[in-house]
Write a structure and sequence with these properties.
Blueprint: H1 16-33, E1 37-38, E2 44-46, H2 47-54, H3 59-64, E3 67-69, E4 75-78, H4 83-92, E5 102-111, E6 123-132, H5 137-153, E7 160-165, H6 169-186, H7 192-200, H8 227-242, E8 248-249, E9 261-268, E10 277-283, H9 287-290, E11 298-304, H10 305-315, E12 327-330, H11 337-349, E13 354-356, H12 363-372, E14 377-381, E15 385-390, E16 396-400, H13 404-414
Parallel strand pairs: 1-5, 7-8, 12-13, 12-14
Antiparallel strand pairs: 2-4, 3-4, 5-6, 6-11, 7-9, 9-10, 10-11, 14-15, 15-16
Helix pairs in contact: 1-5, 2-4, 5-8
The structure holds histidyl-adenosine monophosphate (HAM).
């Protein structure tokens, strides 16, 4: 049998894996500057959590979950997203009992059984950010601002933030009644998914990629909000204006998870196309109580890490070029390999990136490897002396054996090549 990674999954190798680290550390720093703290939760949860949290009629729960029974017959699901897990954690740990705003971020793989294509995988990564404990529109604005800061910190200038308000359960259910009635007359012209959704999840007909052009004549949800949701939406827009954040209202933006209410948003770039978001999020004021916790409003977003990498890389492939670092040590004389080995470990213990050769290869091919792997120095050990080469400048200097300590001090950053 030929072994291959399962369809829709990928191996991430250097230099991409190094690029991931660069991106992740930037995201982490930015989230922490905004006061968010890291949480880690399990990769799988009880299936019921996602059914209840995300909604029985959503595509995720209906068609996309990786669900299995463990040896004791319990139904478990690989997490398709993080918000439901975070909400479960919040209730389970009793954080809902404390007043105040709790702000968390997380990073990890998510699993959805979708048709793989560019930017869409069955195992993909989320960098998620969630704030719980306040229904203030300022918090919605803070999260949208974090989205903007995040993409701009990667020099992505060409992007669009879509926003919408889907109201509360009351104004939304009245709108859905109205929408359902109007759609009934024309639904025969819509795609198969829309014909199914019109009864199970009517709002999703609005964001159908195939049929959204048909929706121009339909009433707009944000024009049908109750006074309190309408005021909340106005305040979000006012806050965005205060921070000079550009947005575009998108009446078709309803999101595919049932926990949302009021503000929803997505960020798109031309690199991926208008219908492929880099990130998506919104407010979810009933999720915590729906999972048995004390009523606690929440708002958050998740950034598709794989997609962000794709955009950052296509926008600026040079971001992977990190400065040369460390030293590669070798000797053409097998009798000196012990010394090579000892010096390598000595330098590592002094905190320097150091590598030596474990194969009997020519010096020339080893220098090539060191150069390709971005080492700054190449140290060759001979019987009576050693030669240190700077791989950036090509400069070479010979040191006597007695000068070994001087070379080690120089390499570990505490001296220069004089
Ligand atoms: P979501 O829109 O389902 O939201 O996912 C967020 C982002 O994950 C998307 O914008 C996209 O970039 C990325 N994504 C989704 N599916 C895939 C896939 N199959 N392959 C690659 N990337 C993908 C949520 O999951 C919500 N939990 C977001 C949230 C957090 N709302 C409030 N807090």
């Amino acid at each position: 049998m030929e072994y291959r990674a399962p369809r829709g999954t990928r191996d991430i190798l250097p230099p991409e894996s190094e690029g991931w680290d660069i991106i992740l550390s930037k995201l982490t720093v930015r989230a922490e500057e905004y006061g968010y703290k890291k949480v880690i939760f399990p990769t799988f949860e009880h299936t019921e959590l996602f059914k209840r949290g995300i909604g029985e009629d959503t595509d995720i729960v209906q068609k996309e979950m990786y669900t299995f029974q463990d040896r004791k017959g319990r139904w478990l699901t690989l997490r398709p997203e993080g918000t439901a897990s975070l909400a479960r954690l919040f209730v389970e740990k009793g954080i809902d009992k404390f007043n105040g705003v709790s702000k968390y971020y997380y990073f990890g793989s998510m699993f959805r059984y979708e048709r793989p294509q560019s930017g869409r995988y069955r195992e993909f990564y989320h960098f998620g950010v969630e704030a719980l404990g306040s229904d203030s529109p300022y918090l919605d604005v803070e999260l949208i601002s974090l989205c903007k800061d995040t993409v701009e910190s990667f020099a992505i200038k060409d992007y669009l933030i879509y926003i919408n308000s889907i109201g509360c359960s009351e104004c939304r259910s009245q709108y859905i009644l109205k929408l359902g009635g109007l759609l009934k007359q024309v639904i025969a012209y819509y795609c198969e998914d829309c014909r199914r959704r019109v009864t199970t999840n009517t709002l999703r007909v609005l964001d159908c990629k195939i049929d959204k052009h048909r929706n121009a004549e339909l009433p707009i949800l944000s024009d049908n909000l109750c006074p309190s949701c309408s005021q909340h939406y106005d305040e979000v827009k006012k806050g965005l204006q205060t921070l000079n954040i550009n947005w575009q209202e998108n009446p078709n933006l309803v999101r595919g998870l049932d926990y949302y209410n009021r503000t929803v948003f997505e960020l798109v770039t031309p690199y991926l196309g208008e219908s492929t978001s880099i990130l998506g999020g919104g407010r979810y004021d009933q999720l915590i109580s729906c999972l048995g916790g004390k009523e606690t409003p929440g708002v958050g977003f998740a950034l598709g890490f794989d997609r962000l990498y794709q955009v950052v890389y296509s926008n600026n492939p040079d971001f992977l070029n990190s400065p040369r670092k460390g030293v590669y040590i070798s000797s053409p004389e097998t009798g000196l390999w012990d010394k090579v080995f000892r010096i390598t470990f000595d330098l590592r213990n002094r905190g320097l990136k150091a590598e030596c050769n474990y194969q009997n290869r020519s010096l020339k091919s080893q220098v090539k490897t060191a150069d390709k792997d971005n080492y700054e120095f190449f140290l060759t050990i001979f019987q009576k002396d050693m030669v240190l080469k700077n791989l950036t400048t090509g400069e070479e200097k010979v040191y006597e054996n007695e000068e070994e300590e001087k070379v080690l001090v120089l390499l570990s950053g505490k001296g220069d090549m004089s």
